[in-house]
Amino acid sequence: MNGTDRNGRAPLLLARNIAKSFGDFRALRDVDVTVFPGRITAFVGPNGAGKTTLFHILSGNLRPDRGRVLLDGVDITRFEPWRIAWMGMGKLYQDVRIFEGLSVLDNVKAALLEPSDYSILSAFRLRRFAAAERTRNDEAMHYLEYVGLGEFAKKRGGELSFGQQKLLAIARLLAHGSRLLLLDEPTAALSPVMTENMISLIRKITEEQNVSVALIEHNMRVVRNLASYIYFLHEGTVFCHGTQSCVLENPEVRELYMGLSGGRME
């Protein structure tokens, strides 16, 4: 999948020949992946298959030993994570990273800051600062309400449940203007109700916000509900990739992933 998709769109994210080792352990071996815009792409596979290592490389938290990563055609392989984030790639970590001591509203407001807002001189432009602050409040509330956290705006981030903190982290990514979200196990450790909320939110984001999603997920019901394209990783390689039926109904995938010789991956 190196060209355009069926709608003629060029890839949003490309990774080619990615290799990464930690000592004698080869975590990734010549991995190729393509993420097209407007699509939910899932990365599945057993623990230790290399999925999280791949996401760390895509987002700049790790450097590959070999290979290239391109975002919108720009080679970002050696870019720092903050620079990749400003280019529009946001990441939800397994260990959710919010400002626990700040209010929920201020967490989102922090994501709305532009580089110029950090200038000391801007603090002396009081009228301009006050107007910008009102606008920032309104925008932050918009994103909180969008993810279902509007009523918790005045709470501290640390007072939210783990699932609500994940929603807050996603609100921050949307507020920052992310066009591609890398979600590392977004439904892990969530209650059934919060899992359904997360599924609905991810679907809504791709349908309404012109945001693409790549996710790592072990819950096959979630994958079936969301993903239009799937990569199955095994022992650091892409074993196969394609549509849901192509991957999830593959007998070899069922055997490698679940130890199943038949039936469905649920």
Structure in words:
The protein has two domains: 1-88 and 179-266, P-loop containing nucleotide triphosphate hydrolases (Rossmann fold, 3-Layer(aba) Sandwich); 100-176, no CATH class. It is α/β, with parallel strands linked by helices and 266 residues long. Helix 3 (104-111) packs across helix 4 (126-147), helix 3 packs parallel to helix 5 and helix 4 (126-147) packs across helix 5 (162-175). The model is unreliable at 260-264 (pLDDT under 50). Helices cover 36% and strands 23% of the residues. The longest helix is centred in the middle third of the chain and has 22 residues, at 126-147. It has helices spanning 51-58, 81-86, 104-111, 126-147, 162-175, 192-208, 220-226, 244-248, 251-258; strands spanning 13-22, 25-35, 40-44, 66-71, 74-75, 89-92, 180-184, 212-216, 229-234, 237-242. The strands form two sheets. The chain has a six-stranded mixed beta sheet, with helices on both faces.
